Amino acid sequence: MAWCARQASRCRYLLRAARDAEFPSRLSGSRGFAPLSLLPSRKDVLLWGLQGCRRASVGSCSLPDSAKDGSFPSPASCSPSPVKQEQGKAEPLPGLNAKILCEDWDDIQPSSALEEISEEEAVQIIAEPLLPLQSSTLRDYVDHSETLAKLVHLGVDLSQVEKRQKAGQLLLTLDFEKDIKKILLFLKDVGVEDNQLGSFLTKNPYILGEDLEALETRVAYLKSKKFRKSEIAQMVSRAPYLLLFSVERLDNRLGFFKNELGLSVKQTKDLVIRLPRLLTGKLEPVKENLQVCQIELGFQRSEIQQIVFKTPKILTASRKRLKQTFDYLHNIMGIPHRTLTHFPQVFNSKLLRIRERHMFLKFLGRAQYDPAKPSYISLDQLVSLPDEVFCAEIAKASIEDFEKFLKTI
Predict the structure, then answer these.
(1) Dmax of the chain from CA atoms?
(2) Contacts of 233 (CB under 8 A, 6+ apart)
């Protein structure tokens, strides 16, 4: 029965092909069809089909008489009946490609992935590199990620970014056009220069995952506190994490320094403009250094206020270094608290530099730090001048003499 149904399907195909041959306009816009010159005429198709059906009648399924009056046969009635096979062979019809028409398209096997190909075809196959499922470096993803490629072009150092916790995973989930571009435009509007964007994002890649509206709210808060745009740009550039903190946290930090140090609003603003990381760093080291200055070093509250306002870095300095420097200045060099309060920049200098120059001046008999006496040498001159200028103008000696002296101590 299956063979009979297939043969009938072929006949229907031939009839459709003949009908289309009589109406070329029906094929003019179709795709995947053969040219009209290859199709047989309607007459040829009918003749070929009748001859083909007679040749295939052996083994075919003959219908009983009940089918003629519209009733359906039972499955058992459809049995093969022997019929004499036509002795003569059908002559090929002109213009008919019997091989193509008789080909059973259902029997064509699909191409297999295991099908053999020639060496020439094999070398022409270009395999795309596979995206690594897991990697310890972002470098392996740059060729596959437009976002990472554009960030590298901006100057972002991915080798530094991947050292920050979950920063690499964040960048791989972001789309440059949808997520990152708007943040870059925001940073430029805040005042971050184009040549600073790469360095900024290297230090703070997390800002790329922040909500734009939240970032704009934090900038608006700083403006409400009378920070000028140039000052905000300076603070954001020097403290890249500043805009990650909520308005509430920023407000609490400003209030802490104002109340703890007894500063005015203007002095508090000046303090955080000069050292904006006071708003982003931990408060514990700041509180500890304030206690060290008051309890262990013996400064009065008003003196601490002046020292911090002039030298904000003293709030984040190492406690050990702070105590060692004060001990040498106050107990060995004899510098009183009031002098240190006027020149707190000395606490930012290296102790070795202070010690070498003081010992050289003492060797020359010129170590005089009292402003009320002749030949006074200020602490600023002691630590800030280059060696050549210090020797010529302060020590009144040559640089060679200073270098020889350093070898003896």
Answers:
(1) 143
(2) 190, 191, 192
Tell me how crowded residue 71 is: count the other CB atoms within 10 A of its CB: 10
Structure tokens at 259: 């109340």
At 28 the three-state DSSP class reads coil
pLDDT value at residue 122: 64
pLDDT digits (tens, 9 = 90+) for 278-302: 999 999 999 999 999 999 999 999 9
Q: Mean per-residue pLDDT for 165-189?
A: 93
Report whether 357 contacts 350 (CB < 8 A). no
Whose structure tokens read 């976002």? 147
Per-residue pLDDT at 406: 94
What is the average pLDDT across 65-73?
Answer: 43
Neighbours of 115 (CB within 10 A): 6
Location of structure tokens 């028409």? 101
The answer to whether 90 and 45 have CB atoms below 8 angstroms apart is: no
> Which residues have a Cβ under 8 Å from the Cβ of 263 and sit 6 or more positions away?
257, 271, 305, 309
Please state the separation of Cα 295 from the chain's center in Å.
48
Is the model more confident about 65 or about 209?
209
Tokens in use for 132?
A: 């690594």
User: Residue 107 and residue 396: Cα distance in Å, rounded?
Assistant: 107
Backbone angles phi, psi at 175, to 5 degrees: -105, 130
Comparing 399 with 132, which gets the higher pLDDT?
399
Residue with tokens 């290297």: 202
Mapping DSSP onto H, E and C, the string for 233-253 reads: HHHHHHCCCHHHCCHHHHHHH
Rounded to the nearest integer, the mean pLDDT of the chain is 78
